């Protein structure tokens, strides 16, 4: 697959085509028993080579990739589109971490690679941007910025979370027109449970799920236990078989 999958071009951004508001895609890979990771949050490779490559194409189609700080701590991901042919010179997506208390480990791979591969800056990677609460102590902000990341301070909600409804305006203030939210479980849950943006429009534009034909058993669910009520209705926009996996593109009703 040396070209962008046509079904993504045809179906991903159609749900926000008539608006200038930032496009929000929620995406994850899951097992047949609706798990996204193993016991204790252990990372599981669910996607086969074809759907993993598709995920990297999807990363390159968005301005930013967002994960929660637990996923950063547990998976230590790279969040790049490194499976795509380098000859295409595609702009790398901007990594965003939702991290209310600024727990961001300065030893993380996304920061280490940013610091140790200056020749790749802007070519295959961008500086990690960490979105945290405005009440985080200044010394801690200085420490993380001194280590090379950018810290963005925002107002937290009454659960001490970054309010999902305010993400679109945060994105706009950062000059980002689209975001692919990859997880984990808590982040997916709060975004799925929050129907509207601060301006009253629909929050999530697209949901893209890779379903792998395997069972995990004990593990981390798509949403945390007890949070599987009040989830929105989805409408299937497209289904594609990719190698062993099925990929569904849905719109939130
Ligand atoms: N299979 C897949 O596609 C993926 C799997 N994962 C898995 O997910 C697991 C991590 O999931 P979780 O522990 O649930 O952590 P998470 O990655 O969802 O991060 C949760 C943390 O994000 C912060 N946060 C900021 N704003 C928030 C908001 N509005 N709502 C909720 N939290 C907010 C809080 O500090 C919270 O503790 C890992 O095991 C990882 O492997 C993660 C991404 C994709
Ligand atoms: N699409 C997909 N398939 C899987 O099987 C996965 N485990 C994930 N996990 C997500 O990808 C991140 C790792 O990314 P890098 O390869 O290190 O860039 C991980 O943190 C999850 O967000 N995704």
UniProtKB/TrEMBL annotation:
Catalytic activity: 2,5-diamino-6-(1-D-ribitylamino)pyrimidin-4(3H)-one 5'-phosphate + NAD(+) = 2,5-diamino-6-(1-D-ribosylamino)pyrimidin-4(3H)-one 5'-phosphate + NADH + H(+); 2,5-diamino-6-(1-D-ribitylamino)pyrimidin-4(3H)-one 5'-phosphate + NADP(+) = 2,5-diamino-6-(1-D-ribosylamino)pyrimidin-4(3H)-one 5'-phosphate + NADPH + H(+)
Keyword tags: NADP, Oxidoreductase, Riboflavin biosynthesis
GO MF term list: 5-amino-6-(5-phosphoribosylamino)uracil reductase activity
Domain Bacterial bifunctional deaminase-reductase C-terminal: 22-247
E.C. no: 1.1.1.302
Role, per record: Catalyzes an early step in riboflavin biosynthesis, the NADPH-dependent reduction of the ribose side chain of 2,5-diamino-6-ribosylamino-4(3H)-pyrimidinone 5'-phosphate, yielding 2,5-diamino-6-ribitylamino-4(3H)-pyrimidinone 5'-phosphate.
PANTHER family the UniProt entry points to: 2,5-DIAMINO-6-RIBOSYLAMINO-4(3H)-PYRIMIDINONE 5'-PHOSPHATE REDUCTASE (PTHR38011:SF7), DIHYDROFOLATE REDUCTASE FAMILY PROTEIN (AFU_ORTHOLOGUE AFUA_8G06820) (PTHR38011)
Name this polypeptide is given: 2,5-diamino-6-ribosylamino-4(3H)-pyrimidinone 5'-phosphate reductase
Organism: Kwoniella europaea PYCC6329
């Amino acid at each position: 697959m040396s070209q962008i999958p046509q079904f993504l071009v045809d179906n991903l951004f159609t749900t926000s085509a008539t608006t200038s508001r930032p496009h929000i895609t929620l995406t994850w890979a899951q097992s047949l028993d609706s798990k996204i990771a193993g016991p204790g949050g252990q990372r599981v490779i669910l996607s086969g080579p074809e759907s993993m490559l598709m995920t990297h194409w999807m990363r390159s189609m968005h301005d930013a990739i967002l994960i929660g700080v637990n996923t950063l701590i547990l998976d230590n991901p790279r969040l790049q589109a490194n499976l795509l042919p380098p000859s295409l010179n595609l702009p790398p997506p901007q990594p965003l971490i939702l991290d209310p208390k600024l727990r961001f480990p300065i030893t993380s791979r996304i920061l280490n690679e940013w610091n140790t591969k200056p020749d790749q800056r802007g070519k295959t990677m961008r500086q990690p941007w960490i979105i945290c609460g405005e009440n985080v102590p200044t010394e801690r902000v200085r420490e993380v910025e001194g280590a090379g990341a950018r810290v963005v301070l925002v107002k937290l909600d009454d659960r001490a979370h970054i309010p999902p409804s305010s993400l679109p305006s945060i994105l706009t203030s950062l000059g980002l027109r689209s975001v692919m939210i990859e997880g984990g479980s808590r982040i997916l849950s709060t975004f799925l449970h929050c129907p509207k943006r601060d301006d009253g429009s629909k929050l999530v534009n697209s949901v893209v799920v890779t379903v792998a034909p395997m069972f995990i058993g004990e593990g981390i669910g798509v949403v945390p236990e007890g949070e599987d009520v009040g989830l929105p209705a989805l409408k299937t926009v497209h289904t594609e078989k990719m190698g062993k996996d099925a990929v569904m593109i849905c719109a939130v009703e």
